[in-house]
Amino acid sequence: MSFTRDKEFIRKMFDEISPSYDRLNRILSGFQDRRWRKKAVDLLMSEVNDKPRILDLASGTGDLSIELLRLKPSEIYSADISEKMLGICRKKINYPSHKTVVADSSELPFEDNFFDVCAVSFGIRNFTDLNKSLSEILRVLKTGGRFLVTEFFRPLENNLTRRLFMFYFSNVLPFIGNKISGSSYAYDYLSDSVNNFLTVSDFCRITEDIGFTEIKIHKNFLDFVCTISCRKK
User: Fold this and answer.
1) Do 181 and 20 meet the contact criterion of CB atoms below 8 Å apart?
2) Alpha carbon distance 129, 132 (integer Å)
C-alpha cells in the first residue's frame, strides 16, 4: 500500500478500527498514552482563564477531551472526521456542555476567534493539508488563545535508539495492531504516517510561520513523542 493522506481513506480507516482503538492505544504505547495526554493538559492548568471554550481537534474517541475537562470548560467540542470514533466519544463523556462535531481540520465549522484552547493529540500527522489546517486553527482561536499538540514526530538522529524505535514502529506495531483490530492495513498506515511526518523542529518552524508564538517543546519520549505548546499572537 502506498502512503496517502486522502481524507476519505483516513475517515474509513478510523471508522474501521474504532472498536479496538482505545485498547490498542494502551498496548502499543506501553500504557503511556494517557500519561502523555495528562502531562499535556497539565501545561494549561495555570495558563487558561476560568471556563474556557475548548476544541479537541482530531479527537478520536475522546481521551484528550476527558483530560481537558479538568480545565472546567464552559463548552468543549470534540471534532473528528470519523463518526464512529465520535460515537464512542459520546458514550465516554457525560458533561453538560460537551458537543461532538464531524469536521475536517482544513474547513472548521466555527466562527473566527471562537476558542480559548485548541488541542490535538496523535492526529495532526494525519491532516491532509497541514498548513491550511494550522491556519484554520489560528482563525478559530481568540487572540492569546493556546494551541497544544502531542504527536509522534519523525526522529531527528539516526542513532541506535532511533533504529530500535523505527523497527518497533515499522514491524512490531503493525503486526500487533492489524491482528487485534482485524484490519489488513490500518497499522501499516499509522507506522508510515510517522515515517512521512515532520521532525519536531520542522513542525515548530511551520507553526511559527503560520502565526503562532511562544512555541515550546516538551519531550515525553526523547524527540519522538513531544508536546508543542504555543499561543496565537
Assistant:
1) yes
2) 5
Q: CATH number for the 7-157+199-232 domain, one of 3.40.720.10, 3.40.50.1980, 2.40.50.140, 3.40.50.150?
A: 3.40.50.150
Task: Give the other-Cβ count within 10 Å of 157's Cβ.
Answer: 10
Phi-psi region of 197 (alpha: psi -120 to 50; beta: other; left: phi over 0): beta
Lowest mean pLDDT of 35-39, 84-88, 147-151, 152-156, name the range.
152-156
- pLDDT tens across 57-110, in order? 999 999 999 999 999 999 999 999 999 999 999 999 999 999 999 999 999 999
Count CA atoms within 13 Å of residue 90 on its CB side.
Answer: 12
